[in-house]
Amino acid sequence: MSERPPAPEPLPHPVVDNHCHLEMALDGSDVLTAEDVLSASAAVGVPRIVQIGCELESARWSVRVAEELTGIVAGVALHPNEAPRLAAAGTFDDTWAEIQELAQHPRVRAVGETGLDHFRTGEEGRAAQEHSFRLHIDLAKRLGKTLVIHDRDAHADVLRVVDDEGAPDRVVMHCFSGDAAFAEACLERGFWLSFAGTVTFKNAGALREALLVVPRDRLLVETDAPFLAPTPYRGRPNASYLVPHTVRFMAEHRGEDLSALCRAVEENTFAAFGGGW
């Protein structure tokens, strides 16, 4: 694994990394402990993290770490690419039953990431993927928790399914990947749009156009760590302490005061996931 990037200059006001996979690493050899991540990220103005577990073992782990560390809350789900594999193995129902139990934990603020992925799942798995997505939407509504949506190459179908089922009160589009028109469609439905390091990539012109149409009160920021490290560290291991690079880019691109944007992102995250952690 590549060497981790250095810490950036601290932000002028705290923000929350609303989507992180602390238990993962690009090659499995360099997983920081949750305490390490919190310490490093808090030092640069990112003292809170939403830890996402999107297969059964990581969901269990996410609940445990959220119990242990006050700076972390959890989201649990079956990833869109996990659902077809479980369905093919005949283990989806049993696994889903435990995810539903884990989702009821008070330190679990979100059901997700769930959604649709047409990049990695082919036609043969999409029915199972959509079935799983619908179950997650229902669970989020029944429990009154935030729905975190994974959408890869599936914009129209994601909106179709959400419209069919009816959206929960709080919906976050994780690692937003659409253009300005899709952003507008999500905003019309009252979603929050979360931007990751991808918005800093040179080839992300459409994504940067989307960033400009999002009202300040609907913006969130995330890492999706250990993936998607922002420029100038693209391809290196990502972690929550690198959020300031993305936030600074967002503020500059939108022509906004950095401190004001940080305050808005923090307030938005608490509105989307609930405060008090």
UniProtKB/TrEMBL annotation:
Keyword Metal-binding: yes
Record's signal peptide: none
Family annotation (Gene3D superfamilies): Metal-dependent hydrolases (3.20.20.140)
Pfam families tied to this protein: TatD_DNase
Phosphoprotein listed as a keyword: no
Source species, domain of life: Bacteria
Annotated a divalent metal cation 1 binding sites: 19, 21, 113, 224
Keywords: Hydrolase, Metal-binding
Residues binding a divalent metal cation 2, per UniProt: 150, 174
InterPro entries: DNase_TatD-rel_CS, Metal_Hydrolase, TatD-like, TatD/YcfH-like
GO CC annotations on file: cytosol
Any one GO molecular function term: metal ion binding
NCBIfam families in the record: YchF/TatD family DNA exonuclease
Protein name (database record): Uncharacterized metal-dependent hydrolase YcfH
